Amino acid sequence: MTRRRFSPHALRARRTQLGVSQKKLAEVLNVAPATVCDWENGRKTPANHRLPDLATVLYCPMDDLFEAVAA
């Protein structure tokens, strides 16, 4: 069975692809800009309840924000 984890790189790639700043993403999600920075740098992971909103704002399926991890 393949495990999956949140991908900071996928988040940054999708956000920049859409031309959205960290500050704007933070405003829409009602979090601090430093929180988005922490997510993108792998220091923190978004809470599970934030993932659907994050995917909606970034116009992508939630699965696109995850990566496979070797078991």
Automatic annotation (TrEMBL):
<protein>
    <submittedName>
        <fullName>Helix-turn-helix</fullName>
    </submittedName>
</protein>
<dbReference type="InterPro" id="IPR010982">
    <property type="entry name" value="Lambda_DNA-bd_dom_sf"/>
</dbReference>
<dbReference type="GO" id="GO:0003677">
    <property type="term" value="F:DNA binding"/>
</dbReference>
<dbReference type="InterPro" id="IPR001387">
    <property type="entry name" value="Cro/C1-type_HTH"/>
</dbReference>
<feature type="domain" description="HTH cro/C1-type">
    <location>
        <begin position="11"/>
        <end position="65"/>
    </location>
</feature>
<keyword id="KW-0238">DNA-binding</keyword>
<dbReference type="Pfam" id="PF01381">
    <property type="entry name" value="HTH_3"/>
</dbReference>
